Amino acid sequence: MKANRLKTIWRGMGTGFKLTVVVCATALLTISVFAYVSVRSHSASLLAEVERHASQLSESVRLSTEYDMLHNHRELVHESIRRIGNQRSIQRIRVLNKAGSIIYSSDAAEIGSMVDKKGESCYLCHAAGRPLERLEMKDRTRVFRPAPGSSRILGTITPIYNAPSCWTAACHAHPRERVVLGVLDVTMPLAEVDKDIRRGQLEIAVFALSAILALSLITGFFVKRLVTSPVAELVDATRRIAGGELGHIIPERADDELGLLAKSFNNMTHKLSEARLQLVQSDKLASLGRLAAGVAHEINNPLTGVLTYSSFLLKHTKDRPDLQEDLQIIVREAIRSREIVKSLLDFARQSVPRKGEADINAIIGRAESVVGGQFALNNIKVVRELDPALPRIKADAGQLEQVFMNLFVNAADAIGTGGGAITVSSSALKLPPSAAAQIRKALCPKRHSLIDAGTPLDGKPSVRLKVKGAGAEGFLHLSAMYGSGVQLCSLPPAAGGPAQYACPECAVPLNSKGAACPACGGAVYAFEAPPWGMIEGCAAKGCGWRRWQGAEDAGNLEFVELRISDTGCGIETENLQKIFEPFYSTKGQKGTGLGLAVIWGIVDNHGGTIRVESKTGAGTTFIIRLPVNA
Amino acid sequence: MKDQRDILAIDDEPVITGAIRKVCAAEGLSVDTEEGAAAGLARLEDSSYRLIICDLMMPGAGGLEFLAEAARRGVSAPVIIATGYATLENAALSLARGAINFIPKPFTAEELLAAVRLALRCDRLQREAAAPPGAGAPPAYAPCPPGYYRLGCLSWAKVESEGSVLVGAGGLFLGAVGPLGALELSLPGEETMQGAACAAAVSAAGDRHPVLCPVSGRIVEVNAGAAATPALAEKEPYSGGWLYRVLPSNLQAELGRLTACGPERIEPGQARQQRR
After folding, report:
1. Percent of chain A, pLDDT > 90?
2. Interface ipTM
3. Chain A residue set in contact with B, beta carbons under 8 Å
4. d(CA A220, CA B104)
5. Contact B189 A303 (CB under 8 A)
6. Per-residue burial over A309-348, b = 16 or more CB atoms within 10 Å of its CB, e = otherwise
7. CATH of B3-130, one of 3.50.50.60, 3.10.280.10, 3.90.25.10, 3.40.50.2300
8. pLDDT digits (tens, 9 = 90+) for A192-242
9. Which residues of A touch B193 (CB under 8 A)?
10. Whether the model pTM is above 0.80
11. CATH architecture classification, A356-432+556-627
């Protein structure tokens, strides 16, 4: 239960926090182990130093007293041991005989007393029950506390072995068969050493703790800076975008993975907002169509009265030159109004442009000459960067002239009366079919159109097929953009995709006979997509393979790209996606809010695209791409 | 005996009917006006007219309902449909339902009169053709041959074996226009739509009559002969006088909105004329 709760809490923590905790825990473990080992080896080496000192001392005492012992000069031995034992670094020196009786000692009081075999100076040899006769150097020392709470003491035992001189000496004190005659026991206080050890431990502990603390802080800081904050920004951006704020842009701070993620994220939002714009646009255009139809009907009736009566009067007042001129103006303006209403209806109906060979540079020139008068008044300079070798394109010159006139007027309005510049440039552009080819016509073998404007995908009318599969029947919508894999299928997803494709109108099968998708082996549809012949494809989920051999063979598609930039007030980012919407206007009473919507419609009808880049206070650029061979 | 009048104008807007009355009366035509389809039909009980001009969209019954009801009652007067909601679909639909012409509002006095004169002449030609052929009387106009599809009497379409469609102006229409002054034609490569004006016949008198196209598609060829000599279209409207070869974009659906020309509609004398 407790483990589960911890697990829940852990899962609820932020990535940055978890990362910091893991790094700190690792550091804590590593540094602790390191500190522990250091303390151990430091203590051991200090102790070894004392040991070495003690054994050296023992050896010195043994050698310096040996001669006196052999000659039985007890007083001299006593004196030597007392003197040496009086040094501060030595607690006590004593010599025990085999029976455990203290013969010499730096502490005169204990001479003659017996030592218990279980006593600390004896157990090294006598612990095993039977006395050892040889003791290794490392085994001769012992560390003990004489009483609980007192400081530690190091004792070194040096056995005094029997030697020929001992049993041949004048005193004949020792028999020949004895191996060990007695023990020299030197004890040294460890208080100083223990103090050193404690100081070392403290130092290492302080270092370890500071290292852990520093590491935690540094890790925490960088994790926050490099991970937590960018991730928080991404999360925040996702929320904003989910809330519909598609103009939100994440600052791209580095080229690392998170930077790349932010970049792809921004790219995705951009694409998303473009797609949404196109969708909204189609939707708005549909309602605009209904509205325009109503308006046209309402306006056309009163206009009929004006036009009929005025033209009638014009015809019947040939003898009144004073009236003729006025009537001509009324008729002319009424006819102009008729054309305006008609173009509104045409636009609402997305009328087919009357295309001919068009010279875009010349069209730009004409548009400029129409609205140019206003530029000079407002101190606006027009910079032309037109490509003289621009290919002529198939387009409706009248409609395109309207596009440029509108954009020029918008640019001039954005600049205002303060003066500025409008730059208009044209250039040729080549794009591969996968990036730009669009299916504009799709026909079944019985010449039924498969294009469905009612369900736009990628902002363009889609291709609609009837599909059968998994015992169900439905419709499949394919994006008209050749390079796009976007599709919409009303069938439940089945492995291998729909089995049968057909024309929605006449149900003639559209399966490519005997062909299997080279990517997934599913059924392949095929229909005619003029002007580039048959297009084949597979609609299996996740496959989306398509081949439009004609388009591929036709090579890169040619476009002309036109840019109109101004140095005006710019458009705020959140408004950028609204500007192409019908009835969106920043000009109040001056504008209808239809200008850019009309432009969008015209460019779209030419198979082109229009987009806008803007920076508040710096200016706006409209970029139009039109196909050369539409 | 019913009153014999020239024109009945039906529109829910008095300003329109008033304008029609003014313009036509100046040409010596007698005009009655009504503000609705039902009132118009009631008026037809008492009077007979040479021509009816009816609005398409009116409260209650509209122009299409009026056409259907007039046909059911055996009204023989030709009907021009006028509308402020001049969509291509409405144009094609009105002609398919039996209107003799379609005129978008707003129109000038000249445009209105041109349409009126054309309709009256069409009607006269049709009556002459329906009458038993007089000895040696020249045929009034070339009829639409079987296998052709027509949009009212304005234009026709003939599907060719290659999938393309031949488009021309109707024989009755050209006959009614009278001596042709000029033919205004589109250019090859242009797109055209069913119900959209794709050409205009200008009479010697200067009246300009738009020809609405029977099918949508791309014009791939313009008949150079007809363009050079408009008289060719007048003489052989259904053969050598064709106007365009069109690559259709939505043929099957559009043929459904056209009227098939059939042998049962052709008088023996006219059929002979066509074969010759």
Report:
1. 9
2. 0.83
3. 293, 296-309, 311-312, 314-316, 331, 334-335, 338, 342, 345, 349, 352-356, 394, 441, 446-449, 505-506
4. 76
5. no
6. bbbbbbbeeeeeeeeeeebeebbeebbebbeebbbbbbbb
7. 3.40.50.2300
8. 888 888 898 899 889 888 998 898 899 889 888 888 888 888 888 888 888
9. 352
10. no
11. 2-Layer Sandwich (3.30)
